[in-house]
Amino acid sequence: MPISSDPNATAEFFLEVDRAKPAAKRPVFLVRFMTGRDLAQIESLIEQAEAQPSTSDGNAAAYTLLCRAIAIGVVGWRNMAGRDGVPLAFDAAKLESLLGADETGWSLLSERELWELATLYSFAARPAGADRFLSAWRREFDGASSAPDATSPAVA
C-alpha cells in the first residue's frame, strides 16, 4: 500500500486468528498512516513493554504500554463485538478499557492477540514492501512453511 497524502486515509489490519473468517464479518482494525516519529514511538513503547517483569497477577505495566502503542495508529474498527455479541463502538479515549478484561475476566483480545496487534498493525499502513515482511513473519510465527516436506515424493 502506498504512503497516503490524505491525512484521513486508513488501511486495514486483521489478526491472524481472524484470517479464515469471511471478509464481511472479519474483525478489522483501521490504521492511519503514520510518520517516522510515530513508528519510532510505537517501537519504543513495545520495547518498554517487553522489558516489564511478569507478576503473578499479570503484567499491567506492559498492558498499558501496549495499549498506548496501539492508540498511536489504530483509529477505528469494524465487526468488533463484546462478549454478548453486541457490536462495540470504537472510542479512542476508552481504548485501554475496551481492550482490557472486564470484571468477569472476559477480554476482547487475548494476551497473544494484543501483542500481535501492537507489534504488527503499523505494517498495514506502510509501503507495499512491508506486506512481504508481514506475510513472512506470519508464516514463521505459525510454523507454516511453503516448502514441501522433505519426506514427500517430488511432484513431476
The global form is globular
Radius of gyration: 17 Å
**Proportion in helices:** 25-40%
Decide which structural class fits the backbone: mainly alpha
The largest sheet is: 3 strands, antiparallel
Order of helices and strands: EEHHEHHH
Number of strands: 3
Content of β-strand: 5-15%
Q: What is the average per-residue confidence, as pLDDT, rounded to a whole number?
A: 81
* Count of separate structural domains: 1
Kindly report how far apart the N and C termini lie: 37 Å
How are the strands of the biggest sheet laid out side by side? 1-2-3
Tally of contiguous helical segments: 5
Q: Which spans have pLDDT < 50 for at least 5 consecutive residues? A: none
Describe this structure in words.
The chain is mainly α and about 160 residues long. It has one domain (about 10-140). Helix content is about 35%, strand content about 10%. It is built from 5 helices and 3 strands; from the N terminus they run ββααβααα. It has a 3-stranded antiparallel beta sheet. The longest helix has 15 residues, at about 35-50. The chain is globular. The mean pLDDT is about 80.
Features:
single chain, 156 residues, mainly alpha, 3-stranded antiparallel beta sheet, 5 helices, 3 strands, 37% helix, globular
